[in-house]
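Section 3.1: Structural characterization of target chains.
Under the original work plan, the team committed to producing a structural model for every single-chain target entering the pipeline before any wet-lab resources were allocated. The record below documents one such target. The sequence was received from the expression subgroup and is listed exactly as submitted; it comprises 202 residues.
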Amino acid sequence: MELFSLIILGVLIVISPGADFILVLKNSINHDRNSGIWTAIGISLAIVIHISYSLLGVGYLISQNELIFNLVRYAGSTYLIYLGTKSICSASAQIDITEQDKDKIKTSNFFIQGFLCNALNPKTMLFFLSIFSQVMSLESDDHLALFYGVYIITLHFLWFSCVAILFTSRKLQTHLLKIKKKLNQACGAGLLIFGVLLGVTS
């Protein structure tokens, strides 16, 4: 039952709205489905970093060092504020992106955005530290921790890919285009708020 509870907790954490969700949504509606999926891939691979230092215990050391922890926290906060401000400022941009314009936008940009958005979030770091301390306490077995790590990575990829696919479906596109400016502003404000809260919350 303890492992089952952790599995359910993983699902709840992944699907709860946060900076990652807003970023995938923003990139999907502003560019295309592929952009949202590449953002999801970046987020998923960033999870590997959190899992790695959680298992190695490095995250615990960072969380106990106020200077290092604050550097990570402010870096993540600054990045989210940057993304949010950029989204708000470009909310009135042209709705349609031509194929020529799409070709100029490198998919690596969306991958990097997703990767940094997740990797620079110290709250995600503390979440994984607490979760993996529970996983390791259930059974002294590296295979169990590895299984749970792969499970969390897969959950992130599947969920955020579904978000990208859902919000780029033709049925939703017609409605989303009508409110794109407000949606962009809302996404930008959400990222900005998350960034500010991350910076001021100890």
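The longest helix spans residues 142-166.
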